[in-house]
Specification:
five-stranded parallel sheet, 171 residues
Length: 171
């Protein structure tokens, strides 16, 4: 399977995006850029403001462009809830003439999604996860570009990863 010079971006908090991104990166050898890890590392410095605005996204996009320029695949594990964030990833790919494949990870069952958000834990020391009210009230821009969707509702992680893998290798 050839994914060189491409990047994949995953969205939707609490739907399984980080688990899918981690497993896809492991399976394909892609670079995994996890925004939550980067945010927490910045906050751990003790000098960063609580609202990082777009700082982490911009840094991650620069790292993505560096790795794409080396011919490596990149999986950016982030929410991308606004058009500006999505455009930033597109610009990073354009810098090095790489192709972008967008993968939206959703959980279409609101009750299951809420249960996941309320019962999940993180492996990132010190990271505070958003509660259901924050996730449910988050503004999420409508997609204006082609993208693939994996619905994780009532499915195992393995089945969701397999579907994502197959969708991403078709283009």
């Amino acid at each position: 399977m050839q994914w060189r010079d491409s990047s994949r971006w995953l969205v939707c908090p609490g739907a399984g995006k980080s688990s899918i991104a981690r497993d896809l990166a492991r399976r394909t050898g892609a670079i995994w850029l996890r925004i939550d890890s980067m945010d927490q590392a910045i906050w751990a410095s003790g000098t960063a403001p609580s609202d990082l605005l777009d700082w982490t996204y911009r840094a991650a996009q620069a790292v993505a462009a560096d790795n794409l320029a080396l011919g490596l695949d990149v999986i950016a594990d982030c929410v991308n809830d606004c058009e500006e964030a999505r455009e930033g990833w597109e610009a990073a790919a354009r810098q090095v003439d790489a192709e972008v494949f967008w993968l939206e990870v959703v959980c279409s069952d609101a009750e299951e999604h809420r249960r996941r958000v309320e019962t999940r834990s993180t492996d990132i020391a010190g990271l505070s996860l958003p509660d259901w009210d924050v996730v449910a009230s988050r503004a999420y821009a409508t997609w204006k570009r082609d993208h693939l969707i994996v619905d994780t509702a009532h499915r195992s992680l393995e089945a969701s990863v397999e579907e994502a893998f197959n969708l991403l290798r078709k283009p």
